[in-house]
Amino acid sequence: MDYSKYLNNKTILITGGTGSFGHQMIHELSSYRPKSIIIYSRDEDKQHKMKESFSEMSISKKIKFVIGDVRDYDRIFTVCKNVDIIFQAAALKQVPSVELHPMEAVKTNILGAYNVAKAAVARNVKHVIAISTDKAVKPVNAMGMTKAVQEKLILSDELSNNNTIFSCVRYGNVLGSRGSIIPLWDSKIQQNKPLPITHPDMTRFMLTLSQAIDLVFYSLKYAKGGEIFVKKAPGAKIVELARAYAELKTGKKNYPVKYIGIRAGEKLHEILVSQEEMRHVTEQKSHFVIQKESTLDTKSLSKPITFPEFSSSTVTHLTTTDLKKLMLTLNWII
To answer: What predicted TM-score, i.e. pTM, was given to this entire model?
Structure first.
């Protein structure tokens, strides 16, 4: 799908822009003609490395790196001047770390996101798209709880009564994103040790970074305000993903694994749309759109809940062959 109308000649701000999302977004935007891309983050070392990695690309001339933190309203207000689109990706998202330091996640994932939203309204930014997660659905950990509140803030009536269009995209496990388990698996394979797996039944959705970005662009085109966009994706057992990866790396089938137990705050399965949310979902071929309850009539909300939740445990699972093909496509095997 062509998104030129929505991206060309636009000034785009990416908060938390030095992460996997920001890197992939730059690659995807290189196919368009944005006016300017602002990478906003608090880590100057990551910014320097990112600048180096894109230095040979023509789009590098349009990238501006800005040091700042979403916790600082004055800074984000200043940076939002003349911005057309904000992709709000700044977050503390490592579940175990956030379990230990939940208040830090509150400062970034809730208060920081609200700062971005307020600045966007004050600066008349046209679109704000917040990047959410499956962990915001039926949250069991501090990270998910803060992201759930972020969704509520971003989509609140308080903000929707302005000229800025706010929406969220929600997706689960993104293959190859920062924090991937692949480096750990590589280390274990080099040492000829079993691959650590949390639980034999653990499942995750299998979504690529490119598909995640496409969902963001889709939201940019179709959002009217207050929606959550969810990409349909196949699932897989993590143990099967590990064995497929090890087979490609070593040529050995049924590479040994070691079950180490589920980490604090971790779910066995990902859920992207809860059963309750299914009451106000519009289903398309490749995605769901969760409509805002306040925009629906009472009759719609009183319908009985007859739909199952959208979970990685119930969707079609990729086979070992499928997983190997996918990993080769993504250049996982070096």
So the answer is: 0.92
Contact predicate 241/323, CB 8 Å: yes
Bridge-based pairing of strands 228-231 and 287-290 is: antiparallel
Domain boundaries, the chain: 4-173+207-231
Query: Which two tokens mark 101?
Result: 């330091």
How many Cβ atoms from other residues are within 10 Å of residue 199's Cβ?
A: 15
- Which residue type, as a one-letter code, is found at position 321? T
pLDDT in tens, 229-267: 999 999 999 999 999 999 998 998 889 999 999 888 889
H helix count then E strand count, the chain: 14, 17
Which CATH architecture group holds 4-173+207-231?
Answer: 3-Layer(aba) Sandwich (3.40)
310 CB-near residues (< 8 Å, 6+ apart): 230, 232, 271, 272, 273, 278, 288
Active-site annotation holder among 135, 237, 249, 267: 135
- Annotated catalytic, 303? no
Return d(Cα 267, Cα 271) in angstroms, integer. Answer: 9
